[in-house]
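Why does residue order matter? Because the sequence determines the fold. Keep that principle in mind as you read this record.
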Amino acid sequence: MDEPTPSLEELEEQTFITKEYIEEKIIPGFTDAYRRGFDEDESTMIPSYVCRLPTGMETGTYLSLDLGGTNLRVAAVTLVGDGKTDIEQKQFVIPEELKTVPVETLFDWVADCAKDLLIKIKSLEKEMYMGVSFSFPIKQTDINKGVAMKMGKGFDIPGLVNNDVVELLNDAFVRKKINIHIVAIVNDTVGSLVAYAYRDQNTIASMIIGTGTNAACICETSEIKKQNFPPDSPQYMIVNNEISLMGADFLPKKTKYDKILDSQSSIPGFQPFEKMVSGRYIGELVRLAIVDYVKNYNLFDGKLPGKMEIPYSFSTVHMSEIESDRTYNSANILKSLTQNFKFSEDNTPTVGDMRTVQELVRKFSRRSAHLAVAAVASLIKLQCGTYKNIEREVRIAIDGSIYNSYYKYSSSMSKLLKEIQESGEDKKVKIVSVKNGGIIGAAVTAMMYSPHP
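Structure:
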């Protein structure tokens, strides 16, 4: 039997996360998950083999490649010192059909994109060193060795999982006759941490809040019990937390729409945190709620707009446009809805309809931001022993389209972090925006580990 449709009041109760719940359940839940990752869980707290941070004074031009859930970016990053960079980059939308092809087909396309950049910067004949930012879980055994693990974000690439991403990419560069040598591979969160550390050496952790969601932080190498590092290993290492996989045992109770989304996803039960936070999913949660409200609460006069029946057709761009509307007649909401979905002439949305949609949007975006803040607090606690009354300067660098572009998302996060830290205006802990984190961080890492610095 179908679960009853929650009223707006009931959905408010289901999606609102109290400060107490964050402090008593979510932060301790992350803390336990980090410990399991250090001790035994191979899919989380993954060593990056990045064991140093930049000073901000490094110089030189290095290539980077960032393979994300939506886009591929290739760039030539010139480090000019004093924490500053110049970037020449090209961005390519990854065609949906390339998300399920054999790995050679995908990586040949990637190599062709890299070749386009080399032609643009007139460096096709030069030997170039590259760092790769990879937005999917990899098990690393060295700075330039990373075996692909189970993927999300709609990717299912035969021949990629359980194989070395660097080897496969280098093979594609050889096939395409381009003289690129990959010297480092990092998760995009690791790259973001390195990128902001090039600017500010107080950076201790990073997050991505975009199509997907993840985090990285600096840990003592000796903490990583599951891996036997030699006694002479560096004292610290950046770790890829893979927080998207965490939360099954401590996240808030799922709404009706969380349950539907999970059951219809390619891997039910996989990435519980990501499915409540990331840009790939929160728009779909709103769409599922709208469909349910049309059917059971007569939203839009009981008629579902054209295209609204398509899974994942309601994006976070639509959400941000709708949430930001402050007009008396919801004119901007009307514009967003009618430009993206088909309404019949006799079925124009009423102001009441539009405010209902706006309320649905707010509930899921707010929950996403609050869960993201809980993760930030847990990262601070892991490295500082507490998340309250921190005496040292601390920066948490965040990249991703939701954090950087969604209406008031970043300010909402900063406000809530301040509340749970119980800190004054002179707080030393700051969430900061990093853009192009994966791209810059991969290039900086390539510089640090290149044989020809």
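The two ends are 64 Å apart (CA to CA).
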